[in-house]
Every structure is written in structure tokens, then in C-alpha cells.
Amino acid sequence: MENAPRQGTLHLSGPSCTHFIIQLPRERCVINRDNSFDLIRHLAALAVLVSHHYVLSGQQEPMLQGYNSLGAIAVLAFFAISGFLITQSFLNTRSFYHYMEKRIARIFPALIGCAFVMVYLCGPAFSTNGLGYAFSLESLTDFLKVSAFGRADIGDITSTFIFKDSFNGSLWSLKIEFGCYVLLALALLVLRRAAVPLIIALAFCITTYLCSTSAHPMAPKLLVYSTVGIVFFVGSSLYFYRAAFSSVKAKLLIGVLSAALVLVSLNTPLVMVFASIGVSLLVLSLGTLCKDRIIKSRFDISYGMYLYAFPVQQLMINTTALSFYASMLATVAVVIVLASLSWLFIEKPALNYVHRRSRHQESAATMA
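Above: the chain's sequence. Below: its structure in C-alpha cell form.
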């Protein structure tokens, strides 16, 4: 059973502006940390790296035939966990403003840091114009574009690469994830019920099916967006119904049924809908069933791994003489170092600052 809801205050503007206050119910039931979400996120980041290494080397990605690539499925795992945990975050944050503050702190500082490394460190070292690129208007435009979810197609670097389309092709998912954060929050502001994410997930299911059967030129792109939307909002819905699968038997049953749903739907017209639902349920059932004894919330370099893997792979594959597997292993080593630096010096300080600020403001509001 959920704890009785408490009343919270929603501030719709920044701290220096006039505040519009809306009273919202606020719950305090937080998921136990005895799960394996951190471990799954790190494994998913590694799976994306492995999958992309094939593409960037001019080879075929590992595929679950009749459904999707290893990398795409790993991205869905990220979105499933995100939908589940972000819903918890929203329901336990005292205002929309503070919720968005935490989401911005999680996404943008590390992204801006990665954009700086790509443009102002990799640019002079590997671009055709060398130092001239670093001091050009083009580099500033690229830096701002990447920092604001734009395409990382730095042609000065990738013009001679096997995969020329982008220097960092992983960043496409960030704007969608941030959009899901905003959509979830706005929807729950209107109606704070479990039916809300379910309805949104259903809308994405319908969109996914229509896109998968459409010949419209925009259909493939919309299909990608709607598929991750399914997974995110199924994860959100599952958070509301978490009490229904609190037992080990229930989690095992959901895991088995979701795996069966994926397999049965392969090579059918509804595979993108049902397999995506199955992946979301499978990831979340495994995540809540198994206990992580390795990471245990001590660190989280999965986001940094996701950010840096693609550009490091591009450079390893195209500027060294390393073999396929040697370049993959070298990439993993370099990415772990970069992701660790990002976590220690950018992500963790940014998150700690926001949490300290939020606690301070909450204490001040309580004393007022």
C-alpha cells in the first residue's frame, strides 16, 4: 500500500520571479535501493558501445532478428528505467520547478562538457582545419548546437571517416528523453493518476503501429520516437502499480511473460509495439528482482559512457591501425576514464548542488 499523500507546493517560476502556487498531493513512498538499475544502465551503455562499433566499422549491427539491433534495445532499457525512476522523482519532489531543476542538472552539465571536449579538444587535434577550426565561428556554432540537443555532425572531423554522418550519433536520444520528462510532469500536473502514463503509452503504441505500416518518409523517424515513448511511459505506469509486483513470484512471472511477449511478437506487424512493451517489463522486473552487489549507488558513469563512446569509437576506428576487437577494448578503456572524470568533476557536483539547494529551500519553507 502507498503512504497517505501529503500536500506539496508547486512553484511555476524561478526563485527570483513571482510565484504562482498550486497545491498538489505529494507522496513519500520511495523505491528501495535493493535493485539492479544502476548495473543494468552500465551494461546497457556497454551494449550500445558494442553495437555501434559494428556500424562505425562498416559492418552490420548485432540484431534480434525481426525486431531491433542490440544498441536500440539497450537504449530502450535506459528509457524503461528512466520512466520508472523519473516518475518516482516527480511524485517526491515538492514543486515542478525543483523537478525540472534536477532534470536539467542531470542532462545538461555533462552534455555541455562532452560538447566542449568534442569541439575544442578533438576539433583542433583531428579536424582538417586544425587550430583554425577551434577559433572559427563554425566551432562555436557546433558547440552551442551540440549543447542544445543539436546534431553532432562535425564534418571537419568526420569527412574521411567510414561513418561520415555524425561525430556523435548517440545524442539523438537525449532530446527525446528530456521531452519525456517534461511531458510526464505536465500530464501529472493536470491529473495525478496512474491512468495518465497508461493513456500516453497507449497513444505511443497506436503511433508506433501506424508508423511501422506507413510509407510516409517521416514514418521511420517518428517510429523511433514513438517506440522509446512506449517504453518510457510503460515504465512510468509500472511505478504506479509497483505494489502489484512486490513479491518475487510476481516479478518472475512478469519477467517470463514479458520475454514470451517479445519472442511471440517477432516478425509480426505488431512487433514494434509488443516487443517494446515486453522489453520494458522485462528490464524493470529484472531490475527490481535482482540486487546489485557491485555498484550499489556508489557511482553512475553510465551517462558519461553513453556520451563519450561514439566519438571515441570514431577516432579509434578511423585514426588508428587497431583491429576491430582491439579498437573496441581500447574504446572501453578510454570511455571509462572519460566517463569517470565526467561523473567526479561535472555530474556529481551538479547533482549535489541541486540537492543541497533543494534541501535548503525546503528547510527554509518549513521554518517560514
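The longest strand covers residues 6-11.
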